[in-house]
Amino acid sequence: MEKVSDYFGCFVFDDRVMKGNLSSEVYRSLKKTIDEGAKLDISVANAVAEAMKEWAVAHGATHYTHWFQPMTGITAEKHDSFISPSPDGRVIMEFSGKELIKGEPDASSFPSGGLRATFEARGYTAWDPTSYAFLKGKTLCIPTAFCSYAGEALDKKTPLLRSMEALNRQAMRILKLFGNEQVKCVRTCVGPEQEYFLIDEQMYRQRRDLMFTGRTLFGAKPPKGQQLDDHYFGVIPPRVEEFMEDLNQELWKLGILAKTEHNEVAPAQHELAPIYTTTNIATDHNQLTMEIMQKVAARHHLVCLLHEKPFAGVNGSGKHNNWSLSTDTGINLLSPGETPHENAQFLLFLCAVIQAVDDYQDLLRISVATAGNDLRLGANEAPPAIVSMFLGEELNGVLEALEQDKPYHGAKKTNMKLGAVVLPKFPKDSTDRNRTSPFAFTGNKFEFRMLGSSNSIACANIMLNTAVAESLRIFADRLEGAEDFEGELHDLLRETISAHKRIIFNGNGYDDSWVKEAVEERGLTNDPTTPDCVPRILEEKNMEMLTRHKVYSAPELHSRCEITLENYCKTVLIEANTMVDMARKEILPALQSYMLCLAKTAAAKKNLDAGIACSFERDTVTALSALADEIAEKTEELEGATEDAETKNDVYLQSRLLRDVVRPKMEQLRQVCDEAEKKTAKQYWPFPTYGELLFGV
Ligand code: ADP
Ligand code: MG
Asked: Residues in domain GS beta-grasp (predicted)?
């Protein structure tokens, strides 16, 4: 078998390929664009396009596409072939710099939230040279941003790049204050841990709820679930192992640093984590990872479920966004340093994050809001919908000492006067004990754990980057004017800790008492559902902040709000309609057949004239008949509520109606159906049960 190091990145037009296939002059200009955002000359673009095409064609490619991330949350592509007619009636393979830099897909079918007037259906895609082009099958994919003709972002990548730029700008101001002259830029890095379920394809095809909505809408609890905790880090079943092997190979060929894989808590649940990289690349890679997981699963007759809550009563799937800030010179700004000077800088960045998370809790919550994630957040395996931070005992001690101007009794007894302290290094295990916190410091990075498994990580990082940029801006404004820098910094940190310590919580986030304490005593925001939180994006403080850093324009924010709610509504409506359909067309007929069988059996037994009691048949038919009536009734009710919600044109109203009326009715229908399932013989139940789905691989 081939060595991984031989084929790693073989489908990527990466630095090595560029160096080998571009003239040194072109390579240097392109590098300047990639590293410093310098404008790209069309002659350079032409040369890059030519080299890309030659490389792609040599690898069997016939087409190219601009690859972008519209607000649907998945990726989009429109393929064009390289062929161009030549005068002799044949074709040549062509690809110009113009085609590389800009594309004009018909964008009218992508959600725009009213941004793109219908008469101007075109949007355009613009090359993002910082993310490498790659090959998918016979197609050269060029990572791009997607905008309307008026320049409004129609995708998730554009605001992400803008947020990285905003953070870079403000962090550079701070680094200057600390006298870091060599640093040219600051980037955020992300390593997203991705959870998913694998189930058998045959079974999947028998469940229309899974096929239409990605989750089970019915299903009684199996006798065995995750009670024994025997799946977590357990032995990986051979079929899954083959899948993982295949998946890793595909990811490695695309230069994706897939690193860790293991079973998760729930049966059939697994996790994959890559090695962290620059945020926009990590985002592209995570989108690709999700796509390839599904493709590779199909090859193994498996289905990869990325839904946040595919099974009730079993853990859902999330994504942990490990986030840090680092300089182009390789310094992690969230890593406590060796010297007092470095420590002061570390504490400033730490406080900037604390302030950002407290001030913009609502935006972080919004960034993970989907109908699917609402089912997971606050359930007992996931952080609550309330944002709080965990820093660990040691760091807490440091901040407390700093706030109260007291000595810090940590590993070493030290005075907390800034400029004189040497902070202890925080070993990972001393900081990572709390697994229930939505936002935890883990030694040299923060782990944001509220993301749903199917979320694009772009949104969370846009909000996080921009909120931190805002804290840094406020800090820089104050410190740049200071006469006594050290004194001002000391006051700034103390005031920040004191003003924002309410967001720090080291207890158990899964505990009910936390919700009460968070909301009533600390005044933190608790928005359990998408319809609650999303409209807050339009609150003045949020609009002001996001537009100030030019991450979103006001119309773009209105469009995001609209699209997120619209997506919520569509999702719940599909779920409700699927339930109605399955109850009527599958569950009720199945119950009828089973009851008929029981009734016939009882009648036949009676005919024997042997005085047989038939109590099982009689009791079961009686119970099932009552349940069937109830199912029919609840189905009618759900259908009525759904139809009523469907007539509402206002997404705000519709989303609340779906949450308050339709979802509870779905739950009621499910309960009676699950009850009926428990009483029905296996061969009569119309689709695979939880036990079969979860333990079928
Ligand atoms: P866990 O204990 O949560 O499973 P790991 O330490 O294995 O975590 O790391 C999880 C993820 O965090 C990986 O994707 C890893 O690459 C990423 N990670 C590690 N260090 C950093 C960092 N400095 N910045 C961003 N992500 C990081
Ligand atoms: Mg983790």
From this structure: 62-151
Hey, which of 195, 276, 468 would you mutate to test ligand 1's pocket, going by the most ligand atoms within 8 Å of its Cβ?
276
- Helix and strand tally (H, E) in the chain? 26, 20
Angle in degrees, CA 356, 358, 364, rounded to 5: 75
Pocket probe mutation, ligand 1, options 259, 275, 320, 322, max atoms within 8 Å of Cβ: 322
pLDDT, tens digit (0-9, with 9 covering 90-100), for 207-250: 999 999 999 999 999 877 776 666 666 677 889 999 999 999 99
Section 28-48 average pLDDT? 89
List, in sequence order, every residue forming a beta bridge with 194; answer none if it has no partner.
272, 319
Which is nearest to 236 in space by CA: 274, 263, 259? 263
State both tokens at 232.
């977590």
CA–centroid distance, residue 193 to ligand 2 (Å)? 6
Q: Which two tokens mark 392?
A: 């660990």
437 lines ligand 1 (CB under 6 A): no
Domain architecture of the chain: domains with CATH: 4-155 (3.10.20.70), 163-214+226-552 (3.30.590.10), 567-694 (1.20.120.1560)
What is the ipTM for the molecules in this complex? 0.96
CB 298 less than 6 A from any atom of ligand 1: no
Kindly identify the ligand whose nearest atom is closest to the C-alpha of 320. Answer: 2
Measured CA to CA in angstroms, residue 383 lies from 262, 440, 582 at distances of: 21, 11, 32
pLDDT digits (tens, 9 = 90+) for 418-471: 544 445 555 555 555 677 899 999 989 999 999 999 999 999 999 999 999 999
| Ligand 1 centroid from CA 393, angstroms | 20
Provide the sign of the torsion angle of the four alpha carbons 379, 380, 386, 391, taken in this order: negative
Q: Report the separation in Å between the CA atom of 67 and the middle of ligand 2, taken as the mean of its atom positions.
A: 29
Task: Output the pTM of the full model.
Answer: 0.94
Ligand 1 close to Cβ of residue 318 (< 6 A): no
- Cα 40 to middle of ligand 2, angstroms: 39
Conformational region of residue 552, where left means phi above 0, alpha means psi within -120 to 50, and beta covers everything else: beta
